Amino acid sequence: MRVLLSNLAIVTVLTTPAFALAAQTATGTVKDYNKASMSLTLNDGTTFQLPKGFHDPGLKAGEKVSVSFDMSGKNHEAKTVKILR
Q1: Which of 21, 34, 43, 48 has its CA at 20 to 30 Å from residue 6's CA atom?
Q2: Is the residue at 67 inside a domain?
Q3: How large is the average pLDDT for residues 70-75?
Q4: C-beta neighbour count of 76 within 10 angstroms
């Protein structure tokens, strides 16, 4: 029984960092897209910082989008933005 529990503890410890580094996904409606500040705000108030070299897929207010992002402190750093049709 101890071997089983210790193996389970080892697997848990080894896999936790991988989940912590995985990108998260949010969906919502665009409230504001600011090309100058490279930011995207959804209707729920969540603001995402867009990466350098971001290719605008035609974002505009009212578009429904899916955003893949990572957390950096309190900042939401977008990795990808897709318009949902």
Answers
A1: 21
A2: yes
A3: 88
A4: 18
